[in-house]
């Protein structure tokens, strides 16, 4: 069986990390190693994990690096053929990794992600829909919340200079390089907070959208041609912003 290494960046998450880790322990798929990267927490997160979760590989940053660099660093401590990601305030549903590994094997995928719910424990029993995602699709929408992703370990290379939407930047680069990417429309994770509008980096909606525009603009420059889906991205970002202002964003 293939080993999956899950990397969890941790920053002042002592209130949520136990639940996140428990969701990994509860996976139907058992060939999983866990790497937590403490990013200079001040609430004893590091000590808490060290004391209460002895089977977790625990890494401590000397300075605050942010999520992109922490994920890259965590991957260097992974031994699995595949790497997954989880944030310390999110959870996986028990069948997440089993469903995704089966689909990766079936379709020869390099990368797979899934849909999400927010603050629920509704674990689906079956997968409703699955589709292959390419660069054209990704230009209209970031399909992949980072905690939903499993990918081949050698593909992980987050841009550490990009503070916002660094995940989308990597997904676009992988799609440009013809990685085979799949998307499960059934929610397999629950996020502790919505993507936009709450505390944390993701609450910085404008900066996130500028990060997305910067990411796809780099792809445009590399391609050296007009890329029609860029217009789709701009429209999607505008709609997100209007919904956010109206309080209707989900």
TrEMBL record:
<dbReference type="InterPro" id="IPR001173">
    <property type="entry name" value="Glyco_trans_2-like"/>
</dbReference>
<dbReference type="GO" id="GO:0016740">
    <property type="term" value="F:transferase activity"/>
</dbReference>
<dbReference type="InterPro" id="IPR029044">
    <property type="entry name" value="Nucleotide-diphossugar_trans"/>
</dbReference>
<feature type="transmembrane region" description="Helical">
    <location>
        <begin position="226"/>
        <end position="244"/>
    </location>
</feature>
<dbReference type="Pfam" id="PF00535">
    <property type="entry name" value="Glycos_transf_2"/>
</dbReference>
<feature type="domain" description="Glycosyltransferase 2-like">
    <location>
        <begin position="5"/>
        <end position="129"/>
    </location>
</feature>
<keyword id="KW-0472">Membrane</keyword>
<keyword id="KW-0808">Transferase</keyword>
<dbReference type="InterPro" id="IPR050834">
    <property type="entry name" value="Glycosyltransf_2"/>
</dbReference>
<protein>
    <submittedName>
        <fullName>Glycosyl transferase 2 family protein</fullName>
    </submittedName>
</protein>
<keyword id="KW-1133">Transmembrane helix</keyword>
<keyword id="KW-0812">Transmembrane</keyword>
């Amino acid at each position: 069986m293939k080993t999956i290494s899950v990397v969890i960046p941790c920053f002042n998450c002592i209130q949520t990390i136990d639940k996140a880790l428990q969701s990994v322990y509860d996976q139907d798929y058992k060939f999983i190693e866990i790497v937590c990267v403490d990013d200079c927490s001040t609430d004893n997160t590091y000590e808490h994990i060290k004391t209460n979760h002895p089977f977790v590989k625990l890494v401590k940053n000397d300075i605050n690096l942010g999520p992109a660099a922490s994920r890259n660093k965590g991957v260097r401590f992974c031994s699995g053929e595949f790497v997954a990601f989880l944030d310390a305030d999110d959870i996986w549903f028990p069948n997440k990794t089993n469903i995704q590994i089966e689909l990766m094997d079936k379709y020869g995928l390099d990368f797979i992600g899934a849909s999400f719910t927010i603050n629920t424990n509704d674990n689906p029993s079956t997968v409703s829909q699955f589709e292959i995602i390419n660069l054209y699709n990704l230009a209209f929408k970031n399909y992949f919340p980072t905690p939903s992703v499993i990918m081949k370990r050698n593909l992980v290379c987050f841009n550490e200079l990009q503070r916002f939407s660094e995940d989308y930047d990597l997904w676009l680069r992988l799609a440009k390089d013809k990685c085979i990417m799949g998307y499960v429309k059934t929610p397999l994770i629950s996020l502790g907070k919505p993507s936009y509008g709450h505390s944390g980096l993701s609450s910085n909606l404008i900066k996130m959208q500028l990060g997305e525009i910067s990411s796809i603009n780099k792809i445009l420059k590399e391609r050296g041609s007009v890329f029609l889906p860029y217009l789709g991205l701009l429209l999607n970002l505008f709609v997100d912003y209007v919904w956010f202002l109206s309080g209707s964003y989900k």
